[in-house]
Each structure stands twice: as structure tokens, then as C-alpha cells.
Amino acid sequence: MTQTNTLVQQAESQCHLRGVRFTPIRRRVLEMIAENGGGLKAYDLLDKLSTEHAAARPPTIYRALEFLIDQGLVHRIESLNAYVACACPEHAHGFQLLICRHCGYVEELHLDEISEQLAALAKRRGFNVERQTIELQGLCQDCRTVSE
């Protein structure tokens, strides 16, 4: 079974447990993001989806992305305005992303202690954290090896 199939099956399971609809469009958008391996922009998704569904429009993609993000199945890469599949959607805590600036590879980390420390610090300062995004940009091992 491929990683994409595994992610889609996990998504189906999560949606069923939560009582939310995992529509064919939502499924296909998740598949396209998962198959890419790096971040995909909304209009790249629209281009791909419109070849399969002629009626696909920007709101179609944005509604699907909003649902997938709300369900913790996809993360938005803020610095690139792109989207990446969540490696472990059952994980309910914060995450961090390693992003290769050369090839676009994205890896998800789950260092809960970092997220918890930042949230605690913000709370002590009277700040209510609603969303936390930590992105680390640099070169992945493969790109570093090529450039050496």
C-alpha cells in the first residue's frame, strides 16, 4: 500500500469517527497533495482537478482545503502559500515543517515540547494562541549532497 493510500484511508477513518463528510472532491484534493510530496499551491491543485472535473473552480478548491485543514489532514505552508498532507492526522498537537528551499521537499515534525513551551510563554504574557506555525527553511540532505 502506498503512503498516499494510507493517508487517504486514515482520513476516511478520521472523518467517519468525527461524523463529517469526506466527499470525492475532498478525497481527490488530499490525494493530489499527498502524491506531490512537497507543497502544492491552490491554483496548481485547480489546474489538476479541472482536467478531471470540468466544473472545478477556485471556490471548489478553497472549500476542500478549508475542510482538510480543519480536520487536520493538510497543513498550510505559510511562507509558500502552499499545502502539504499531514503525515499523521491522528496527532492533535502542534507541528513544525522542514522545507527545502531548493527541491521543495517538506517534512513534518512533532516536537510537542516546543509547541507547549511557546503556548505557555504566550499565556504568561496574556496572549491567547489561536494558531502556531513553525517553518524551518534550508537544504535537505539530498540537495546539500548535490551542491557539495
From TrEMBL:
The gene is zur. PANTHER family: ZINC UPTAKE REGULATION PROTEIN (PTHR33202). It is found in: Cytoplasm. Zn(2+) binds at C100, C103, C140, C143. Binds 1 zinc ion per subunit. One of its GO terms (molecular function) is zinc ion binding. Belongs to the Fur family. It holds the Pfam family FUR. Its main location: cytoplasm. One of its GO terms (cellular component) is cytosol. It comes from Halovibrio variabilis. Gene3D superfamilies: 3.30.1490.190, Winged helix-like DNA-binding domain superfamily/Winged helix DNA-binding domain (1.10.10.10). InterPro entries: FUR, Fur_C, WH-like_DNA-bd_sf, WH_DNA-bd_sf. GO terms for biological process: negative regulation of DNA-templated transcription; regulation of secondary metabolite biosynthetic process. Keywords: Cytoplasm, DNA-binding, Iron, Metal-binding, Repressor, Transcription, Transcription regulation, Zinc. Homodimer. This is Ferric uptake regulation protein. It comes from the Bacteria. Its cofactor is Zn(2+).
